[in-house]
Amino acid sequence: MSHSNPAAGPIEAELPHQGARPGAAEPAAGIPRPAADPRTWRRVNRDLIAKSLAEFAYEELLTPVADGDTYTVAGSGDVRYRFRARRGAYDAWHVDPASVVREWEGGADPAEDMLQFLLDTHTVIGVSGDTAGHLVRELTATLAADAAIAAGAVDAATLADLGYAELEGHQIGHPWIVPNKGRVGFSASDARVYAPEARRPLRLPWLAVHRDLAVFRAVPGLTEQRLYEEQLDPATRERFGRVPAARGRAPEEFVWLPVHPWQWDETIATLFAPELAAGRIVPLGEAEDRHLAQQSVRTFLNLDRPARRSVKLPLSVLNTLVWRGLPSERTLAAPAVTAWVLGLRDADPFLRDECRMIMLGETASVTVRHPVLEELPGVPYQYRELLGAIWREPLAPRLDPGERARTLASLLHVDPAGRPFVAELIERSGLAPRVWLRRLFHALLPPLLHCLYRYGLVFSPHGENTIVVFDEHDVPARLAIKDFVDDVNISDRPLPELADLPAAAAAVLLRERPDYLCQFIHAALLVGHHRYLADLAVTHLGIPQEGFWALVREEILDHQAAFPELRDRHELFDLLTPRIDRLCLNRNRLLLDGYRDRPTRPHVGAHGTVPNALHP
């Protein structure tokens, strides 16, 4: 990448490892070899075609027709795809990748070309040409990432011994969204450095930003000075403090924050070039700790000092439907939301003592506004989310001796030999699969249900936000939850428990109808995770679909019976309705939003309804 801007020279000198593309720091050896061999490439294509058939059928983008013991989907011309599939709750489809065949008049081949599948089906789905072009890019990047993961795949037993941060680099991404690792903006060399599957520790560069651009917020009792003392070693703080002083600026004029190395190179050094030239943004150099990117790509855990806060940084990359920046107003409000939510937990004996629920609060934030882009009406939202940071409480110090944590998403992982990660954990626990699943649901559901019923409050408990804490025998014991400012919503009803909501939090938290709040549990947890876990239970644990969902329903009913005084809330927030809205993630990208720039983030759309697996 060219750095012709006159401000770039001295900036790169101060950040010698971050000023250029990561590939430039690698040995010059010509064009690198392909990331995948032909066999692996065919396999990841086959798997993504099967996922596409399943998710596009679920969202009614394609219509499979039963044909004996198989199903067929019509493509353009005389092409059709034939496959075997299992049906599941919520109108789910689970397609056998090995069964998918592309047929045409006079011939048939195994379906092993995802881009050919797109060519064959895009007119049937109704994908426009401009959307299809961008989609090819996202699909190809996803396939390349899948191939990289496959190249470094290990067995379930090895995964079970990994730590929380390290396990993240082995996951395959969002189970519902087809182009789930598109990461539009990353080059091939960027992906080799910054993607979670790269499993490459990084030291983060820091910036000093003048207070006329930057705003610091924190929970009560956490000052800027204390944050820096807890996050940085004394020598690093001293080194950082000398940089503004060497330029004749008082250190107290500035707020410090880390920046993603890619974001610095791609966005900050260019879009903030006037502020860099004026000395209102000053590069400080790298901090000492190594960090590891998590599945969200923009969140980093501290490898060297796990007791230090994790950090969430904006990244001007389009991935899983949205640009991965940090919205200014929500970043500013993150500590206020955290203080309120933690206050509810700490004052509630059920959440605090019985569930022992861990809430990883966003305790400090810095928001940096762009002096021009923030003032332009209708500017695409990606340009209002460029620079800032959120510090989140670390998980490690909140675990008891013998406990270990894994994201809920990890339970869907299947190793190269076809062994599910969840089966490995169940075997290690010594429990019967049905008993283990009951323990899992008991760890997850009561705290989520209590927040909904008692406070009219929902998180978005999808696989990445939801963390399962296991005991020393790998039995699910309790819940940890994160990502408050982006994914906490509250009831639009005037519940007394919401009367003391702080103004800063009230200004950003979305208020939704009771039935819509229920969708956060249905769509994020049950449809977004458990419909896949239910299929693993059928195929590997010997538990039928009806038995799996009966366990979920029983946990909800048991919780309701334990709080009869909240009967009116159980009815208000009714999770047991006969049908629920069919929320659609792929339909949003393919038909509703496409890749157009817009001033606000897109919202998930609904398309019809599906039977509710919890309905008696």
Task: Kindly describe this structure.
This protein is an alpha+beta fold. It has 3 domains: 8-26 and 201-392, no CATH class; 38-168, TATA-Binding Protein; 401-575, Transferase(Phosphotransferase), domain 1, CATH 1.10.510.40. It is built from 21 helices and 26 strands. The protein has an 8-stranded antiparallel beta sheet, with helices on both faces. It has a 5-stranded antiparallel beta sheet with strand order 1-2-3-6-7. A 4-stranded mixed beta sheet has the order 16-22-21-19. α2 (38-58) crosses α4 and α15 packs across α19.
Query: How much is the average pLDDT?
Result: 93
Give the radius of gyration.
25 Å
Strand content: 15-25%
Domain count: the total is: 3
Total number of beta strands: 26
**Strand adjacency order, main sheet:** 9-17-18-13-12-11-8-10
Helix content: 25-40%
Q: Low-confidence parts, pLDDT < 50 over ≥5 residues?
A: 1-29
Count of alpha/pi helices? 21
Instruction: Quickly give the structural class.
Output: alpha+beta
Q: Specify the biggest β-sheet.
A: 8 strands, antiparallel
Q: Could you say which overall geometry the principal axes of the C-alpha atoms support?
A: globular
User: Cα distance, first to last residue?
Assistant: 59 Å
